[in-house]
Amino acid sequence: MQDRTPSDAAASVALGSRDAAEAYVASVCFKHGPPRRIGVELEWLVHPASAPAAPVDAAALRAALGPHAPHSLDPGSPARPLPGGSTVTVEPGGQVELASPPLHPLGRLVATVAADVDTLHARLAAHDLAVGPRAADPLRPPRRVLDLPRYRAMERRFDRLGPAGRSGMCSTAAVQVCLDAGEGAEVADRWAALHALGPVLLAAFANSPLLHGRRTGWKSSRTALWLTLDPRRTAPPSPSSDDPAAAWARRVVDTDLLCVRRADQWEVPDGVTFADWVGGALHPPPTTADLDYHVSTLFPPVRPHGHLEVRYVDAQPGRQWALPLAVLAALLSDPGCTAEARRACAPTAGRWVAAARHGLADRDLHPAAVAVFELAVAALPGLEPPPWLVSDVADVLERRVRRGLCPADLDPADLDPASATSQTTSAALPYPTGDPEEASA
Questions:
Q1: Cα 187 to the chain's mean position, in Å?
Q2: How far is CA 214 from its chain centroid?
Q3: For residue 300, is the peptide bond before it cis, meaning its omega torsion is within 30 degrees of 0?
Q4: CA 16 to chain centre
Q5: What is d(CA 394, CA 401) in angstroms, rounded to the nearest whole number?
Q6: Whole-prediction pTM
Q7: How confident is the model at residue 35 (pLDDT cuts 50, 70, 90)?
Q8: What is the per-residue pLDDT for 301?
Q9: 135-153 confidence digits (pLDDT tens)
Q10: Which long-range contacts (CB under 8 A, 24 or more apart) does 399-403 make?
Q11: Contact 111, 85 (CB under 8 A)
Q12: pLDDT of residue 34
């Protein structure tokens, strides 16, 4: 969803106090308006089609993406949108991302994105590149493809915390659904609903049981990696607030800086929050552009970006990227449906770690998932979706969700070749073992 918080291109204003910083975050991150539009960002792990365990390099991606290559990959590229208006970006490990424009109704968005996906994947295939069906790289170690100051800084910062940062940056992919925040009191309701749905939909769409050549023991290894990192930066928020904008603003300014952009070399300070910077810990004082950038270095399950960006869904195989998009759109299409979905999810509050580890095998998450998928199936036809999408959501409810299965449980052999048949372990990574909300306290 391409309308973002202000960038350096906008007028940048010096920030003289914590109150000013919090007020700015609250004003730009939650933009009120009728909840009509929806967008989606799709990420894929990319590998050479003829050698799935081989790394992909920047030159191959530049050639495949051609005029659609982002400036981060090719500074001289025209960076043209795809025919439907979606933009293409590349993540640090060479993952390719498609970001749709915000559209209404759902059927128009799905048709537009499906056509742009076909165009993008055809370009990759013409250069012997293929997209993987999983949300974590099942074979290759993490390897950074983009050599940019932002990613060098992230790598330095995350390396202080352990190996999970490099894997999260370079070896994972997601489906991110972007929804309007809403108006007035419904903003808090929609914010709370997206978090209430989080563990349930994370479990239902968990699709990353392997990582770097072995089974991890997690249904969503991608989520486990991100929850391992700095909790202030990546964990779900504390229990819902009546004023999510104020709570988010406090969290932003109390989070350590990932980096400070300098003309010569970017700094990676240790233990300095944005509030500390405003208070004089670093010089010169920060500006609103610095604060915009700082917000972009937080990676919680739901991130306010003017709109609400849902980040907790694993990448899905084939056209199944449309399933979480459809379910979320349906559940938030009507306040009554949203309230029913929240009630169904109440027993699963805060069960992010259980969802990532067990998927729908969890005894509380399974019945909640059945209930919310039933609600979604009932509400979806009113959003003008294509018939195949209505059929696919109903089919997933019957064949997968009712049986307590998620994508990680299906057809594992296609991503588990003989070269990656090590024992089922936690892959020696310090994955979370408790409630991330406790860790963030």
A1: 20
A2: 23
A3: no
A4: 32
A5: 10
A6: 0.92
A7: confident
A8: 97
A9: 999 999 999 999 999 999 9
A10: 400/204, 401/204, 401/360, 401/369, 401/370, 401/373, 402/370
A11: no
A12: 84
Evaluate if residue 435 carries a pLDDT over 80: no
Q: Enter the tokens of residue 14.
A: 């010096």
- Alpha carbon dihedral 167, 168, 171, 173, in 10-degree steps, equals 170
The C-alpha atoms of residue 343 and residue 360 are separated, in whole angstroms, by 18
Instruction: Please provide the distance, in angstroms rounded to a whole number, between the alpha carbons at the two ends of the chain.
Output: 31
pLDDT score for 113:
98
CA 193 to chain centre: 17
Here the tokens at position 436 are: 């991330």
Question: How far is it, in rounded angstroms, from Cα 430 to Cα 73?
Answer: 32
Cα-based distances in Å from 276 to 156, 292, 391, 406:
20, 16, 52, 43
Question: Which residue type does 409 have?
Answer: D
